[in-house]
Amino acid sequence: MDNREVALKEKSIVFIGFMGVGKTTIGRLVAKKLYRDFIDIDEEIEKEFNMPVSQIFSEMGEKVFREKEKELIVKKCRQKLHIISVGGGAFLQEEIRKECLSSSIVFFLDLSWESWRERISVIIDSRPVLQGKTLAEIEELYNNRQEVYSNHHSKIQVDNLSMEEIANHIVDSLKLAWELDS
Ligand SMILES: Nc1ncnc2c1ncn2[C@@H]1O[C@H](COP(=O)(O)OP(=O)(O)O)[C@@H](O)[C@H]1O
Ligand SMILES: O=C(O)C1=C[C@@H](OP(=O)(O)O)[C@@H](O)[C@H](O)C1
Ligand SMILES: [Mg+2]
């Protein structure tokens, strides 16, 4: 076993993608399958402020949320062997992108706009960024965000796949990458 293999296997895995594509649920499933710790950055931020994300936005402002988001992601990415789901806006910050891409394996969960649209009612109440926007404005945000998500190591198209299928696919591709690296 050489050092390169150990390094790749030990790298943390980070899930990115637009709000609602499944980063939190898939990340948790993958962590369970790999017997690794799961960290959801939004949940960590909520613990720090002892309030839900919507309340942090309304009472303290988005800037405070984004600063804490950056601080926590940079800290957690540097630790090895974690499975980390970051919020959909995290990769807009260059420092976060650079840190995640250099220290971790970044998976982009890609869900088409057509499929995403069907999920909106499930997520809208807990995503302050979506509130007060028309569907056309949300679509514009979705399109504008795609460029930052193109910064990844691996992409999985998640349309029409169950959470179990997505998690299994990710675990299989990781195991293959680890094997090829050995
Ligand atoms: N592959 C999937 N098929 C159906 N529903 C899904 C799938 N992945 C996630 N969901 C659902 O979509 C919603 C948003 O998932 P979540 O993991 O919170 O997304 P994110 O963390 O990317 O915002 C949840 O209700 C979750 O159960
Ligand atoms: O895209 C965004 O700007 C945000 C996404 C959310 O996380 P999810 O992507 O897990 O929904 C959460 O961090 C916050 O509401 C802001
Ligand atoms: Mg999430």
Question: Could you characterize the architecture of this molecule?
Answer:
- The chain is an alpha/beta fold.
- The protein has a single domain (3-169), classed as Rossmann fold (3-Layer(aba) Sandwich), CATH 3.40.50.300.
- Helix content is 59%, strand content 13%.
- A five-stranded parallel beta sheet has the order 2-3-1-4-5, sandwiched between helices.
- The relative contact order is 0.20.
- The structure holds adenosine-5'-diphosphate, shikimate-3-phosphate and magnesium ion.
- Adenosine-5'-diphosphate binds next to helix 2, helix 8 and helix 10.
- ATP binds at residues 20-25, 127.
- Monomer.
- One of its GO terms (molecular function) is magnesium ion binding.
Condensed summary:
The chain has 182 residues and is α/β, with parallel strands linked by helices. It contains 10 helices and 5 strands.
What share of the residues does DSSP label as strand, in percent?
5-15%
Order of H and E elements:
HEHEHHHEHEHHHEH
Q: How many separate domains make up the residues?
A: 1
User: N- to C-terminal separation?
Assistant: 7 Å
CATH architecture descriptor text: 3-Layer(aba) Sandwich
Order the strands across the largest sheet as they lie in space: 2-3-1-4-5
The total beta strand count reads 5
Characterize the biggest β-sheet. 5 strands, parallel
CATH superfamily: P-loop containing nucleotide triphosphate hydrolases
Question: What average pLDDT do the residues reach?
Answer: 95
CATH class: Alpha Beta
Helix content: 55-70%
Computed over alpha carbons, the radius of gyration is 16 Å
Helix-strand category: alpha/beta
Any idea what the shape is? globular
Attached small molecules: adenosine-5'-diphosphate, shikimate-3-phosphate, magnesium ion
Low-pLDDT parts are 1-6
Q: How many H/I helices?
A: 10
